[in-house]
Design brief:
This protein is an all-alpha fold. It folds into two domains: 56 residues, Arc Repressor Mutant, subunit A (Orthogonal Bundle); 140 residues, Tetracycline Repressor, domain 2. It is 75% helix and 0% strand. The radius of gyration is 19 Å and the shape is elongated. The N terminus is likely disordered.
């Protein structure tokens, strides 16, 4: 049986989780501009100093929330490339993971908050994007691994993965964010995923 964390570590983890959950509620309810670290601390029932100990700025906290939501939905090993499995099957699974994120109400509402904040401050938007990109996005990791294995012909995995992302988000993200359209139903998700993957592999597969 693994050793439990020391009591102080468990308390630290609980406080961090409470801060993230409180921040999600505050950002969704009040928007980016109105939300303050004071309000987050009060909702989380911790001191403002504790909030800053975990997250040095509101921008860092917001980026961490988006990453936290993605990891909670996708899991740590969701984008591992498997040399013994068909590329199409793997990509369809990756797109299914993506749809779970894009259909998550909390993620969509926070994405709206981020876009609104970015419109008011392009510099802040660039900072958010930079913080979100500190770790390479999972689909890019998969494309890079498949290319290294000789299964995809691309010298620019980032560009290739962004192309596939754009095919998905054009149907399952931007209409929902900008036009308040409902999430795609299961049949439409399947149609979008299969056509996007087939187009991608038709161009990049070896």
């Amino acid at each position: 049986m693994p050793r439990p964390f020391p009591t102080s570590q468990r308390l630290t983890d609980r406080k961090r989780t409470a801060i993230i959950e409180a921040a999600i509620d505050e950002f969704r309810a009040a928007g980016y501009e109105t939300t303050s670290m004071d309000r987050i601390a009060a909702r989380a029932e911790v001191s403002k100093r504790t909030v800053y100990n975990h997250f040095p700025s509101k921008e860092i906290l917001f980026a961490e929330i988006l990453r936290h939501l993605w990891e909670a939905i996708a899991g740590n090993d969701a984008f591992a490339y498997h040399a013994d499995r068909p590329l199409r099957d793997q990509l369809l699974e990756l797109i299914a993971q993506k749809f779970r994120l894009l259909n998550d109400e909390a993620f969509v509402s926070l994405a709206r908050v981020a876009i609104a904040a970015g419109i008011h401050s392009p510099e802040r938007a660039l900072d958010m994007v930079a913080r979100m990109s500190e770790r390479e996005e999972g689909l890019t990791v998969w494309v890079r691994a498949a290319a290294a294995a000789g299964k995809l012909k691309t010298k620019d995995p980032v560009f290739a993965s962004h192309q596939l992302e754009a095919l998905i988000k054009g149907f399952a993200f931007w209409p929902q964010i900008t036009l308040a359209q409902p999430p795609l139903d299961a049949a439409t998700q399947k149609k979008v995923a299969e056509s996007a993957v087939d187009m991608f592999l038709g161009h990049y597969a070896c």
